[in-house]
Fold each of these.
Amino acid sequence: MNQPLAEALTHLRMGNQTFLINFYQDNRDHFARWARRQHQQEPAVAHELLRAVLVDFYDQVIDGRLTKLPPDLRNYLYGMAQEQLQAQKTTAELPRVEASRRQQLLRAFGQLGADCQQVLMYFYFRGYNFEKVAGKMGFANATVARLQKANCLRKLVELRARAMEGEAPSSSPAA
Amino acid sequence: MMSPAELRPFLDELERFADGQMTAIEQEAFENRLLHEPALREAYQLYEQISADLRWVAGHETLRHRLVALDRRLDQRQTALVRIKRRQRRAQTRWGTIFTVAVVLLLGLWLLLRPGGRHSGTSWQDYYVADPGLPQSATLDEHRPLLAEAMEQYREGHYPAALHALRRVPTDNLGADTMLYYNGIFLLSQGDGRAARPYLRRVIQQPGTALSRKARYHLAVAHWAAKQWPEARTAFREVASDSLNPYRQAAQQVLQADVLQGEE
């Protein structure tokens, strides 16, 4: 069990998320039963919680906050869920500036249209070239894909700039 | 570090550089400018930071989207499974009900249409244990073809024909007791108890005949068929008390059923 898990960590760092997808598929019902028994959570809420935990775990691996795979991954993830439910975070966190910057970008990303999000995910996460992005998105050619990506990136920068401008007056006095 | 808003004027150039869209000469010139223009350098650093953050955001969001899509698929599968199970259960219930109703209907039909039980009615036919007739081995003798025909007609239920054939059998070819006995049996079988009685009585009166005990039972039934209740009761009691009578049990059943009563 340990060997594949150790490999899974490497794969996750390389952007292969299959391990977590499989974990969700295999443990969704078990987790829902656990959450109902321990925390009286409805299945839909429990499923959402497990998804959030898995994304958080993924972030920990990608950020390098987690360098060694826990001996019992399920226990570790259920522990993270418990922490989320009790709002007591004990796992390593990112420095505040970095975390805030990423959260800001995440919020801006969420404001983009679905197509823009998809183009940026293909390009920045999957590492697809423009030709493949065009093929996946149904664009005429690679140039269209490049222009679309440039356009989406501009929108994201604008949204982030606007968000920073909105936050600046209130955050300055506090700082 | 500069703000994202300040990045706007540099964005085109930075993107072309980062995406490898510049020619070799353009790229070299841009790298030179990066060394000498602090504003461009700062914009490049910001661009790289945004790209790195965007890679994180894209990975984060890709996983989130994949998990949500998987969740939806699992929900759909679960719903479909529940629906299939419910449909199967409903079908099972439906077929179970149909089967039960069919069984109940068939049972009802059988109860209504079944041939009357041996002891269900009060008529003598319900209780009568008919004589099987002479076996074929006893009648196939070439000297007794009429007797064989009579027995065959009797077994097939053609009593008048059987009687007619029996009466044509030469008397030297058949014992008087047998002739009288089967006359009585055939008449009784065709429902004429009154006419059967004298024949059966005469069999009983024949000295040393082996048919005497059998004849007593059939005479009792003939009394019953003729609605001669006291005679019938007496005759049945006699048969029922005779341990050697082959019809003893049949007679006892009639007496136990207490059916020998009615208007005379």
Amino acid sequence: MSKIDDLDEGLSGEGGDNNGIIGSNSGGEAHASGSQLKLIVQTFLENKLAIVGIALVIIAVLFCFVGPLFYHTNQVTTSYNITQAPGHGHPLGTDQNGYDVLGRLMVGGQSSLEIGFSVAIIATIIGVLYGAIAGFIGGVVDTIMMRVVDTLLSIPTLLLLIFLAAVFRPTLTLLIIVISAVSWLSPARLVRGEALTLRVRDYVKAVRVMGGGSRRIILRHIVPNAIGTIVVNATFQIADAILVMATLSYLGLGLPPPAANWGSMLSDGVNYVYDGYWWLIYPAGIAIILTVVAFNLIGDAIRDSLEVRLQKR
Amino acid sequence: MPLLEIDDLYTNIRLKQGEVKAVGGVSISINAGETVGLVGESGCGKTMTGMSIMRLLPASGYIASGKVKLDGRDLVAISEEEMRAVRGNDIGMIFQDPMTSLNPCLTIGSQIAEAVALHRKVKKAKAMERAIEVLNLVGMPKPQERINDYPHQLSGGLRQRVMIAMALSCEPKLLIADEPTTALDVTIQAQILELLDSLKDQLGMAMLLITHDMGVIAGRADRVVVMYAGKVVEQASTEEIFASTNHPYTEALLASIPKMDGSVARLYSIPGIPPDLSNPPTGCRFADRCRLASDQCRDNEPPLVTNDQNHSFACFHPVGIEANHVKITLKVEAEEIQRIEHADRKPLMVLEHVSKEFDITKGAILQRKAGTLKAVSDLSLTIYDGETIGIVGESGCGKSTTGSMMVALEKPTSGKVLFNGEDLFGHKPKELRLIRSNLQLMFQDPYASLDPRMSVGTIIREPLDINKIGTSQEREKKVISLLSEVGLSSRAVERYPHEFSGGQRQRIGLARALALNPKLIVADEPVSALDVSIRSQVLNLMKDLQRTHGLTYVVISHDLSVVRFLADRIGVMYLGKLVEIGTGYDIYENPAHPYTAALLSAVPEPEPEREKTKVRKIIKGELPSAINPPSGCRFRTRCERATDLCAKEEPPMTSFGALHQAACHFPLISKVEIRTGAAAF
């Protein structure tokens, strides 16, 4: 039974009117009980793949950031104990520099995850604000702002990144900035599309009638209502950033040694592919795949659970 | 034997959890050549009944039990392939929205021909001939030329004609019309209803007319079936059902519709909302909302009994036999007139020769001007403190734009909007913000006007936050008091809009509008998205709030009975022009402008006697384009009285009474030269 029935108190000031009391019944439209957030979380948790995704992300974070506290390895100085097969003090063997692969996977994952999260946050904030402003103002401003986005999108991302990586000496901060600089374009487009439809909604008109300004409309009404698109896009952005980072590192344009990273590990391992040193390729490759898949699963589940809210209304 | 016999039909719709029992045991029979009206509120299962006949249920829906017999053949039992031969051939169907029911990629000719080719197994050229023939039949002007048009090139009324042509192309024995005119303007609605009526007689087919509009039923149906919560509650001939209603639901439904004659001061409203059909109550489904319900009604389900007048109803306490009728408070006409004339006539808002034109542009960056749309032209109007002004007209006549200018959302292209004697648009943005809190808007769509991401408390507090009124605690208190004023409990604060019904949302919208203690509220179609029984609650509430807050309303609506109920004075707009203004009596009983008269005669009223004998003055044609409006009087292209003078000279506003003015060269009543100095409009 819905809770709608206890919301009505009847019209006030209707003395002697036999039909004054409204809502003394039960039922009505099938509404969810409780807040929206509860409903969203509930639907999200009903999705089994989402749980898998969440579990994988938690495992990845624990593995990369908590793992090194318990599993101490030397990841700074090289040794002669190179390309040793798994076993004997090295569960996943050692690489061509004599570093322990399992330990390197943990350290390398740190920079991958850091870049993933940072890029997603920065690119989303810039993209959302840019897109919301363009969509909300519309007209000539929108046209110019979106042509800028189109122009930037037409430059091949990899070419730009290779160029930048070749000119500057890559650091973690620089990589984050560079990947963000090419990643904000897609949320900008998506949010602009949302803003175009949201700005003509009656509740936006209502804010104007109340005397509210554009800043309030964008931040309080347009952005929160586009949050579904934004969050989903952000999760995909994490996965994308990890992939871009891996690609760059694979091409040898990532962080210079001794800094480690899943992509560069994979790139180094490829040199030994014909020697049968599988432990140099599979661990890094599987780590990348699992992390990317996990974030994609979460993104899908969030999108589905946010849509349920609309269905049930 | 009846043409169509529905016997104890049950249709369910599967949900993620449980099932909605959309149709719960419906039996209806339709004889050849008969029009049966199926009425009820949204969600009562009337559309699902129609869809079950056609076996066009949504993917999750299925017919649980029951028979649908067409000419003795059970449609529930036959195969899908056999059913396909029945659809379109034996039973035709018209849907509500002609835009979405037509394929935008195909010409209308080929869409009609498709249906013919499918069922008649004829060549394409032959099918096209038939298409032209039926288009001619449904009154499409110049069908040979229009046959190659695409749906977007046609107006709403013409599109509905195409839909009808498609449905009739194979001369079905039964036509199911599901809300055929709900998306159309009253004048077009009258044309389409007239057309359906004459086609029915011409082709000798039966019709199932599904609608929520009692007025449409009254004039067109031979027999009426009233549905409530998936069940038939009453069934009788049209005259019988209006004259001697037996079921309390039917009675309440009729009592909650405002009358066109303006005699009602306060509407009856059915308390509560319809039951949840995934878990229907035992006993009578209307019991919870019924004023006559007893314990017997809650425990046992009343059977559908038929009396000697072939009038059947499902109720233990039928109205008119054991119980009294509902009391409706009638307006005291003399008091009303006194109120208008002796009111403190202090002008609150004055519109002086206001015009609004929208540039139509082409190109993305350069935005070259391709033309101007004259939404409102030279409109002058004075709104007095404490009164309610109604503005009526067809869609596209500029009434909503006028409303937007009154609340300073749109700046007029020329002319002035004075509020309390000051020009609204002569202020700096900051000052305008202060004045604006006096002018609020009430929206049409209660689902779109509340931000779904905000709790109700935040929504109502937002205007106070924006204007920095009071401390945090004071704002909280104000929110609670506003909620109780609109009849909602304080528990609503924490909840989100999607947890409320349409009527409750509309009340939340009203509470938000009242937060700033406005002087003037512009209500743009305040109840047109609501069901009849909910509508009367909101209308009564609007009247109450006007009294307690000393509000001035501008009510914009296409529904003439709603405006008559709320408004003291009514303005009629046509194509951006105010053509007539006066009191309710002046406009409805004594119209001067031919357009007003035609508009009134097009409105279907829930009174079968009047509807069946009414001499309809149906307006020909469609609303001309506002980009190139006709010269002189803009109504001349559709007016019977138009002469050369109307094309040459624009008629000025002339007085027909103290408060009555109209702009016409050849008015329906004689001009009165009294109190011209009063400048009453």
Amino acid sequence: MATLQLRVLTQERTVVSKEVEYVKLPGKDGSFGIMSGHAPLMAPLEMGIVEFGPREGKKRKVALGGGFVEMRDNQLTVLARTAELDEEIDVLRAREAKERAERRLAESRDEIDYHRARLALQRALLRLKVAEPER
Amino acid sequence: MAKSSREIKRRIASITSTQQITRAMEMVAAAKLRRAQQMVPSTRPYFESLHTSLGILLEAAQQRDVEVPWLSSAGDSHCLIVFTSDRGLAGGYNAAVIRRAEAFLEEHPTAQVVVVGRKARDHLSRKGVTFLAEFVNLGDSPSPRQAWDIAQVVMDFYLHGLFDRISVLYSKFINTVTHEVTLRTVMPIEAGDELVQRGRESGFAADYIYEPSLDVVLESVIPLYFQAAVYESLIEAKASELGARMVAMRNATDNAGELIRELNLSYHRARQAQITKEIAEIVGGADALES
């Protein structure tokens, strides 16, 4: 199976650098998949899950806090605001963050607090979804 | 100069403890600087990829006659982001940046100001400057998150048309002892910029699929670019600060050492003088008894 070179970069580090067959990305209008030999592409990415791996079989996941993707010369580069690989996520901490966000959401009075809490909750839920194996 | 030996001894003790503090601060700054410098190579792939992409996008926009509002500036109202440290004891580091900021504000009295770091805030507010926003207590390891906080606030005002140009003012880290106060226009992106150049030279601009459209892709990359510029300023400013503090503290340690040496000398001199005096008195006393 033909592969492409995937790189997921944040400003602090390279999160993924790997030859893979298939990548699924959270685009503005829903997720889309990319395989080797795709035409040059640029697109913004939403907060969501990046999936990559062999076309059939077990895939790895990255929790993505939004960003930008570029495909060129069979190289797929994801520039991420934040990115965490599934195995790096601390489930306990993510759960705590989720509970904290829910509490704040219930208590918040003004709009900014509410907005912040909602974003925090989104982040926590995303991380939990990435970290916990599917049942 | 004729101090008692006890007084001198007390001063030596006091300076020695000051020296211990300055030496510790030098070592702390050195360790933090080393860590900050280790961070720099790991940020490079992101920046390079982002800048090349932006160059290609800008070239594509030019080819397709897409209006890019961030490339041209109609007006001449400024926003200045000043990066200083929260703490002093870093020699002339903050003073140099603040001086440059004051010169800028004299030239552009209507400019909006955003301050990062307590030093610029305290100093400029004493001069009656008001701020659009202030960011203090950022700690010693700048994070992309902090850069996002700053970038988002400034970008919001920019998109609402509060100003047409955004500049950053910070100290660029050359090496431990050399830093260069740098004023750089971040927005609008200058048309002759090396970014566009790189994109143009790549010759790829026409080949890309822009999903969902060139406009939307550009719109999503500009904040990334701006945030990256803020992050870079934060890192450079922090490295310069730590370097400046290291040098300042080393000088202080050296000066203290010099002072201690001199005081030691006068201590021994004073002690010797006293012994001589006592002997003279004893001898004088013995003489008086004998005669």
Amino acid sequence: MAFESVKETTESRIREVALGTGELKVGGENVLAFHLFEGEMPNRPLIAVEVYDYYPEEWSDAVKEPLADVLSDPVAWAKKAQDEWGADLIALRLKSTDPKGMDRSLEEAVETVKAVVDAVNIPVMIYGSEDVEKDGEVMKAVAAACEGKNVIIGPALEDNYKTIGAAAIGYNHTVAAKTPIDVNLAKQLNILLSNLGVDTEKILIDPTTGALGYGLEYTYSVMERLKIAALRQDDSMTQMPLIADVGTEVWKAKEAKTPASEEPLWGDEKKRGVIWEIVTATALLMAGADIVIMRHPDAIKAVRKVIDNMLS
Amino acid sequence: MALSGLDIFKLLPKTNCGECNLPTCLAFAMKLAGGQAKLEDCPYVSDEAKAALADAAAPPIRGITVGKGDKQFKIGEELVLFRHEKRFINPTAMGVRVSDAMTEDELKSAVEKAKSDSWERVGQRLEVKLLAVKCETGEAGKFTSCLETIKGMCDLAIMLMTDDAEIMKAAVDVVGDLNPLLYCATAENLDSMGALAKEKGLPLVIRGEGLSSLAEISEKAMAMDLKDLVLDPGTRKLKDTFEALTAIRRAALISKFKPFGFPTIALPCEETDDLFFEGASAAVYIAKYADIVVLSNPEAWMHYPLQVEIQNIYTDPQKPMAVDSKFYEIGTPGPDSPVLVTTNFSLTYFIVSGEIESSKVDSWLGIVDSEGQSVLTAWAAGKFVPETIAKFINTSGIAEKVNHRKLIIPGYVAQISGELDEELPEWEILIGPREASDIPVYLRNYVSAGS
């Protein structure tokens, strides 16, 4: 007698969100991650490749080395991500605008954004420095400068969602809404944004990412719970695609950067860092991430292989 | 699935003899259902009733022990599909594949590495638990001499990998006393392999060619009265293995499908030659339902991250992980170094200590026992308040280690500084940043202001 698997089907779906101005879409699935035996994922989970707007001196050599030729040039970096690493989109981080750091001006930020957006033909998401006030100003300027490009701007937080949401509405962009690892807070910010007038099909959820060993389990479970609420309870305000912000969090972890000479029991640091990023990204894809933001080319390659294999 | 009192009553003798110290069989049945009596208290219960009751009390996925002594481990007994519902119970056991085709030096070096794959993290010991020894030569002599070498070197649990029951028998003669896991019985060799496992009382992996054939083999194995089974769906592609493991877990928990009520094994080592992809595949299987995962190599750079994933996934979602309450030396602090305090939630500790490290300012970091809560939660719950902080400082011995009396507290609890001042009159209370990411700037300013 042939074994019959338990199938859990649903009428509910994750919203399909169009990115950029081309064909690329994210979301649309009616199943938990890769459960293709009982439903469909009409759009692939996407890999967004990180590009920073300044030379990140403080990064460890393990991840600076493979990026050495582009680290000081965001445009070259973005093009390489698109042409050589197969990025689905670019995640441009305007970290240098942070008032507590380099405090670069709005004009400089806009210049970088325009240069990157014009240089690539894939969609771009633009994240500020997560300074509540400065991000509001920066995103207003960025939204205006990118009119007609449908970029993703963010992260919209509880304290600046009005400014960033309004900028997105004004220039017809998509918003990433970020809340601190909590299902209800994520829902609430989506409600606030949609009350403000942001189209629910132009919102992505960034539930905050804990890297492997640094709260991965919290992000993992919040993502699973958001997806279960979206698909099995038909909860409209959780039906936005999910972003996992992997690269930045992973490469902060000391286990990803400490050399083997200091921690011989941890083994080769270059490969260890790559695996740290692969495991974080893969676990969160399994929890339901629709976009993973990544950094190291080798990790990107392996995670793409996971997605290809799962969808084959 | 638990039986009701009435279900149990039907299985009892119904003589109301009273020898169980209860007046009637019905009363006894009710007590049994409530877990307040034991079946053995009834001297007349039938074997049939015993079997039915034991069956009803059994967990939906059987727990199985592999290995012997300090290094034995248990797998199975899982009750849920998602970790937020209830804690996953027995962590995935990681294995390393070695083979009798390796030279003696290669083998020894791999075993040594597997032995040293052991790390302490947040008070837990993370380690490789299994050596999967594969017979690739097809020669019993080679296989057994390889096992002799391993037996002389370590007490890690062993999985014996051969489809040939004769070779397996020879191997069991060498390491059978170590409670090895036998890999594996298939549709072709179940009779002989199953008989060997039964005779020696050893756990056995059964391998199907997909789920229907696996279910069939499992039913036959259960009919042979084999109890300690581990399931290998025989899939060798990430997508197929993930789907099979999910189907098995669901069948066991949702449909109570007995043939799949056993732990599972995944072998990414047999699925790919690309090490990064092998690691990624293992990451999938740890999250999605493999109880044993065997890798092709013992490299620490690959195992340590996966062990941390296991620790993360199997953490109790209701109970935050906590680190020990004491002063931690970040870098090599001396008498002039800054003194900071925070709570013992493991994430708080990791993030704060990481930021102090990246500031390159050697510091003393005091961790106050806040029952694993983060700063704001602990403050609200009365676990990170002036009294507890003062008590910690006064009993920690930090006053003898530093020649200053400046104490930095998290910015989120700035409001307690006045009261803490009163509790610690000798100390000057400084208010640190609210966010850990601002610690490096704060500490650098602290140092330059002091010098």
